[in-house]
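Students often ask why inverse folding is considered easier than folding. One informal answer: many sequences map to the same fold, so there is more than one right answer. In these notes we will look at a single instance of the problem. The structure comes first.
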């Protein structure tokens, strides 16, 4: 089965001439791409859809360690080059990204310029993002002055 899967995988990607990471081209998945832009491949009987980058990593680098996910170092979801994939914790993967959680984690100052320190950070209980204690306290004082509560 391994040889058959390897042959099948080799037919499903092509090197991308302009997308590179550390001097190596991305391998563009040329078969099915679903949902969030990740490549998929149906294998087995009955067929089961599996993520292409995970299949490629396991084929060329070995099993993905339990509890880890794959980070696309090149930031291209469609890339299946195993050299562009790193097994990391989910937290590391998210924080390396460009989404709101990663942006918030990298913030060093609030929008009013106050530096985030252990004394000035408040973690929002509902959403888990950083808030500035100085700005929060100022808003509360202004509210109490305005409404007397």
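Output (designed amino acids):
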């Amino acid at each position: 089965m391994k040889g058959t899967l390897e042959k099948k995988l080799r037919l499903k990607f092509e090197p991308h001439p302009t997308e590179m990471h550390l001097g190596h081209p991305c391998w563009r998945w040329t078969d099915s791409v679903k949902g969030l832009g990740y490549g998929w491949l149906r294998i087995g009987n009955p067929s089961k859809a599996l993520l292409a980058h995970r299949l490629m990593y396991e084929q060329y680098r070995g099993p993905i360690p339990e509890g880890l996910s794959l980070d696309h170092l090149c930031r291209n979801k469609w890339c299946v080059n195993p050299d562009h994939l790193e097994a990391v914790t989910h937290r590391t993967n998210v924080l390396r990204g460009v989404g709101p959680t990663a942006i918030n984690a990298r913030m060093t100052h609030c929008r009013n310029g106050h530096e985030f320190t252990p004394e000035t950070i408040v973690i929002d209980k509902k959403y888990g993002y950083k808030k500035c204690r100085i700005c929060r306290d100022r808003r509360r004082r202004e509210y109490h002055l305005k409404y007397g509560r």
